[in-house]
Amino acid sequence: MIYNTFSIPATADRYLVISQKQELLDIIEQGTLQNSPFFILGGGSNIVFTDHYHGTILHLENKGINLLSENPETGDILIQAAAGENWDTFVQYCIANHWHGAENLTAIPGTVGASPVQNVGAYGVEAKDIIHSVQAIDTTTGQERTFLNDECQFGYRSSIFKKKYGNQYVVWSVTFRLQSTYKPDIRYKALSEALTTAGIDNPTPRQLSDTIATLRWSKLPRPEETGSAGSFFKNPIVTTDHYNQLKSCYPDIVAYPVPDGFKLAAGWLIEHAGWKGRSLGRCGVYHKQALVLVNLGGCTGNEVVALADAITADVQKLFGVTLEKEAIII
Ligand code: EPU
């Protein structure tokens, strides 16, 4: 069984599947995690293995989605989901129960536990917008700790779990604040255009979710058909001066203003560096979305890294912009 969406065969010293909290506490107690490196695997959708992993892979398979509370005055609904739940199963469960706010995050591969770690986002919404708190277990002591939303230091594809704590904490469950009142968020340009094209003015939650799934799979390869890690790079943020220089040379560059400058569409940069649809070894740049690297069949982790490095070098040379990987290389 290959537990990563890039479909790269890999091995590890130990592979432990955890579905009960006590199993994790026992492993911590035995010192397994203190004495050698370990890595927490969610859906394997953002990972590239380049070698045998000399350590322990923890695969969380705890399950459960529970309604914690409903406030009839504010309409706030608190839902707790186990880290091992599949992300889209969670989103669809919320839609079926009329708990609103997660619709735009439809069809993102991966697990609930990974959602706060890298603050997943799509179509104008990020996990941080609906996360109330994160329940985590400290792998050095076995103690449980709850991080409220503002303690998670959420940023673009980043959080305290990624930046400060590495894998000191294992996310065990996440509490989401959803709403009983449905207010569709259709500000994302490509989404509003897709709804207009489909002739939908006021999408129901189901229509919104279905439109997003269609939009997503029109640009990204389906993991069950083509190996990839979704967006391989982050969209880089540059200063306003740098953006103005680029804009004068490349008037059609795609960028969005952010508080500290401009966020550039990495897909545009890669495409205009001539890489869209090209390949190196058995790793390719997806022909419909240059931000995505794909397994052309039998590709190794080192081939992915070689292609990523070649693209990064060209984008640096041409635009003076440093691309940062969103995917984790281990
Ligand atoms: N573009 C190109 N050429 C390309 C690809 C994109 O010119 O080959 C330009 C297009 O003009 C497009 C713009 O870049 O309008 C932005 O592209 P898109 O709307 O497809 O979104 P993205 O910035 O490439 C981000 C997320 C995705 C998320 C989509 C939709 C990152 C790194 N990626 O992609 O997240 O689904 O927005 O919201 O922020 C993921 O993280 O794995 C992921 C898929």
What does this structure look like?
With 330 residues, this protein is α+β, with helices and mostly antiparallel strands. The protein folds into 3 domains: 12-60, Uridine Diphospho-n-acetylenolpyruvylglucosamine Reductase, domain 2 (2-Layer Sandwich); 65-179, Uridine Diphospho-n-acetylenolpyruvylglucosamine Reductase, domain 3 (2-Layer Sandwich); 228-329, Uridine Diphospho-n-acetylenolpyruvylglucosamine Reductase, domain 1, CATH 3.90.78.10. The protein contains 10 helices and 19 strands. The chain has helices spanning 21-30, 32-35, 87-96, 114-117, 160-163, 189-197, 205-219, 240-249, 266-272, 301-319; strands spanning 12-18, 38-41, 47-48, 53-60, 65-70, 76-82, 121-122, 125-126, 131-138, 144-148, 169-179, 228-231, 237-238, 255-258, 261-264, 279-280, 283-285, 292-295, 328-329. The chain has a 5-stranded antiparallel beta sheet with strand order 5-6-11-9-10. Strands 12-18-17-16 form a 4-stranded antiparallel beta sheet, with helices on one face. Strand 14 (255-258) and strand 15 (261-264) form a beta hairpin. The longest helix has 19 residues, at 301-319. The chain starts with 11 loop residues before the first strand and ends with a strand. The model has no long low-confidence stretch (mean pLDDT 96). Residues 122-123, 190, 219-220, 230-231, 234-235, 254, 265, 267-268, 271, 276, 289-291, 326 line the site of uridine-diphosphate-2(N-acetylglucosaminyl) butyric acid.
